[in-house]
Design goal:
23% helix; 146 residues; 7-stranded antiparallel sheet; Alpha-D-Glucose-1,6-Bisphosphate, Chain A, domain 4
Length: 146
């Protein structure tokens, strides 16, 4: 049996979108818009204490479950949520994420900060950061079309 391990890490991703903080925030808060760039949620309760749950993965690959709880929401300014990520029935990480929206030079600077503990080598901070960057690029594509 593999020895249990916990790798702690923080990563920060900054993106600039040519849209107002209200528009970028709305792309997180509106379930129809969010499903255009993030896996479609089976549960979406965008409020403090609300949950967001979605399941999915690559074709023929493992099934992942994202189970989030919104801890703080300041419209057009900040979203803080905690979440677990499971691969099938195995917990692979637990994280706290803060998303900040700042008005800047005719658009919005988004600051995404994730503080996570990655369990037993099933996932790494580098893989999570890479996947998050891809999602935030998709968010930019969606915003540019709205």
């Amino acid at each position: 049996m593999k020895e249990p391990s916990a790798k702690h890490a923080t990563f920060v991703i900054e993106k600039f979108y040519k849209a107002s903080p209200d528009q970028v925030f709305s792309a997180w808060a509106n379930p129809e818009t969010k499903s255009m760039w993030f896996p479609k949620a089976e549960t979406f309760e965008f409020r403090i204490g609300g949950r967001e749950i979605n399941r999915g993965g690559p074709p023929g690959g493992p099934l992942y479950t994202f189970d989030a709880c919104y801890q703080d929401i300041v419209p057009n300014s900040r979203i803080v949520y905690t979440y677990t990520m499971d691969m099938y029935d195995t917990r692979i990480s637990v994280s706290v994420t803060t998303v900040e929206f700042k008005q800047e030079d005719g658009g919005t600077k988004l600051i995404f900060t994730e503080q996570g503990v990655f369990l037993d080598g099933h996932d790494t901070p580098e893989q999570r950061e890479h996947g998050t960057k891809e999602l935030l690029d998709k968010l930019g594509d969606v915003i540019s079309r709205l």
